[in-house]
Every structure is written in structure tokens, then in C-alpha cells.
Amino acid sequence: MTCTTSRLVAFALAVVLAFTCAVSMAAAPAPSLTVAVVTRDMAPLRAAPAASAARSSVLWRGELLEVRGLRGDYAQVWDHHRERGGFVLREQLHPLQTSAANVPGLQALLAFVSDQPGAETLGLALAAAVIQALPPQDLQGPAEAAVLDAIGRQADRLAERASQGAGERSSQQTTLTAHLDIAARQGVRYLSVASGDAVVFCYDGDAYRRLLANRHATPDQRARAALSLTRPDCVAEPVRPAEREALDQQRDAVLAQIGIEGLSAHWAARLKVRQAEVLSRLAFAAARRGDASAASAAARLALDALTAVSLDDLSEVDQRDHREALLRTNAVRWAAMPSATTVATGLPLTVHTQADGQTCVRLHEDPRADVPSKKRPDGKAAMKLVTDSPRETLVERCTWGQVWAASAQRNRERNAIVLAVQPIDGWRELWVFRQTRQGWEVLVQPPAALLPGVGFAEFAGWVPGGKSMLVAREAVAEGRTIRRFEVVSLDTLIPERTAFRPDALGAFNRWSDAGWKGQSLALR
């Protein structure tokens, strides 16, 4: 009898191909197995049906074998991958009957195994069996969507195991390597993406892409597929910014396919968090290439997406993703303003772009500065506005990053100006122009004294007297999370008082800037 694979879908797991050869079915007193899946790791393949027989190979969970007969407690099998025959204990095998009548049982078994950590290869084999058994009219229907969803879940979970397997014992490493080899034989492909000092294994997403093309997929299945296909840690960082933007546009297009209607609350929240992360990247990229309109639209959509998320709908792991999306979105929130790159009227700052691509911020002498005039009768010096004084440059600083000129603010004492500058995507610093006895200088306050990750340092208000200001800082970098609300000295930018909540500092209760309180995500 000749088996056929013509009904396997294009992604079809290659496991079933192991049984495309002609198999002669000999009659036996007991029911004869045709195909069986190995259910345990390190199952011995022996040369004879006895525990004392020599072991010719070791089999792993999820491997498929052709069963050619039964000998007591043992099944006589042929391993097409190793091109070797032998005997395996029947209790270590599970028969796979791929007729249409067995579809409900296979589906139930697949649903159970899909939720068992460590059984990913077994789940992949069962998924292949379900696809082989499905009637033609069920292909491209709900049943196939459920199988594609199961394949994607198994593949993702195995990739997560592989990514975390660096610190496992040698025996666990051996099992993991064997499972990855079985998955590869079954048509599941993985990508290795460098993430800092580690390497992340990522499923290439073939089953999920096919799931999105299946119009019978449920909203939750589609959301899971979209989130897997747009994982930020599975995007290799390209060298050119234009290539990074193109990748993020592809991710945005995938997420845009998923409607909120019909989604469970937690899937809708996860989707919004991912959209905020992607849109914030697009906003920064658009701003860097000078498209203020696109940057503003993307930043506003990112802010709207985060506003729609309730933390109650997110798990602990999801909340970590939410925190990073929030930091990234807050870093780029100035892009949402109509004139994000324009300095407010009356401030003695100019922003210009040099031929090499750097953006320079120049502080010049204020033409409306107060200068002494003749003395009044009471002996005090009268003051007058000088509007015709030369615009001498007092200090200048340049950056390769994005200057959010609309963020510039000057204190009442006119001895300090703050400015938000974003050197890289997701990391916003605070530039402080301050007046000293020797003249003006520029100090930089980063989100944290760590290698840049995601985060922001932002102005939160002026403290009367011209000696201090309020700063909010939050960052995730080098595996650490930092969140601080600080009263900072203008002389040194060293915090004078620090708290984890703004209401714990009296200065924040009295002198917080109204614009900061109304627009910043630091107070979410």
C-alpha cells in the first residue's frame, strides 16, 4: 500500500514524509501499528526484543517510526531517519492512525499536549498527524487554524527553551539539542538573533503567517500569531536606520491586520502594548529623516495605544513589556506636538543642522536681556530692555540624535534652560544650559548611569530661587530597572533629594510643572 502526502499543506512538517515509502501490511493476531510516535526521551532502540539486547540507538520524544510488527512487549520498528531497524518497548510508543475517523481523538490529544512544557516535539508530530488526517473540505478551515496555532505555540516554546538553555546541565543540553534536531526534521526553522551578549533563538513564523491567511482563525489565534511575528527581540538590528524603519513598518502592517473586536481583554492589551512599541520606533525614525507629520501621527497613535491599556489585563511578564513600551513611547512623546522641532518664541536658542548631519543647539545672548541703566532716585539701578544688542553665541552643543526643540524651557531667574534630546531610539536625555561665573555651559543628565537601553530623563519643574529643578528619570538598561523622582542641583546635576514616587517629595507637590503633569507618562 502506497501512502501519499499530497494533502499536506505547504508548510507540512517533514515528519510524515518518513512514511511515504511502500509498506507491506502483514496480518497479525493483535492490531498492527503502521506509524507510531516516541513518547519518551532517551528511549533505547534495541537489536532484539529484550532488555538485555544491545542498544543500537537512542530515540527522543516526538520521533516517528514505522511499525512493522509486534513481539510481546516490543514493537519491531524501522527508523527512516537513521535508516536502521530494531525493537522499542510498546509503552514508549503511541500509535498514530491518520484516518478521518481518528481526527477528533488526534485533535483532543494535540490540545492536551500543546499545554505541556517539554513536549513540544511530541506536539509537532501530533500536529502533522492531524493535518494528514483532515478531510480536504476542512483544510483552510477552523480545524487547520487550530493546528497551525498549535504548531506555532510548540515552535515558540521550544525556541524559548533553546534561548534559556545556555546555563543548563549537559544532560539537559543533550535533550534540547535532540529536540531542536527533531523540530528541524519536521520542517520547523529557527533564526539565531544576537541580543547583547546573548543569542536568542526565534521561530521563523511560517505556521503563524499561514494562520493569518486563514479567514477562519479566531481573534485570539490571530493576535497570538501577530505578537509572535513582531517580537522585538527577534528582529536583527540592521546597520542602516532605513532598514530598521522598513522592518518596523512590516511589523506595524502585521499588527494592523488584527482587529480589537472579539479579542479577549488580555490579548487586546498585549496587542496595544506591542503597537505602542512599534509606533514609537516609527515616530523616532520619521523624525530623524525630517518627516514631522509622520512622526507626529505615529507618536500620537503610540500614546493612544498605551492609554487604552489597563494593567489589570496584563500578566507579570506582560507588564515588563508594557514598562519598556511606556519608556520608549515617553521618550518620543514630544514628536506628537505639531511643532516638535521649533523653539518657543522668546527663548534665545537656535537649532540648525550641519552638513555632516549633526544637529547643533546654540544659546546666544538674549536681545531682550535686562541691562543696568541710570540709577533711580532711591539709589537702585533702573533696568531697561536692550533689543539692539548683538546676538553673541554663549555656548553651543551638537548631537547626532534628535533635538526636541519644543521642549525647551527657561526658569524665572533666567539662569537655566532645559532641553530634551534623544540620541538614540528609546533613550532621551536632558540637556541643561546653565549660567556660571565663567559663563554658560551645557550639562547632560542621562536616564541612568548605565549603557543606553530604554528610558528618559525629563524636566518636571523649576524650584524657585534658580538653584534647583525637578527631574523624573526612569530606565531599563543592563538588566536593571531604575525609577527616580529627584530635586537636582543646577550647579552639579547631583540629586539633593530622591524618591520613588513624586508625592513623597514636597517639592513635587508644590512646584511640578503643569505641562509635565499633563503630558508625561512618568506619572502613569
UniProtKB/TrEMBL annotation:
The keyword Signal belongs to this UniProt entry's keyword annotation: yes
Species per Swiss-Prot/TrEMBL record: Hydrogenophaga palleronii
Signal sequence bounds: 1-26
Lineage summary: Bacteria, Pseudomonadati, Pseudomonadota, Betaproteobacteria, Burkholderiales
Top-level taxon of the source organism: Bacteria
Name of protein: SH3 domain-containing protein
Keywords: Signal
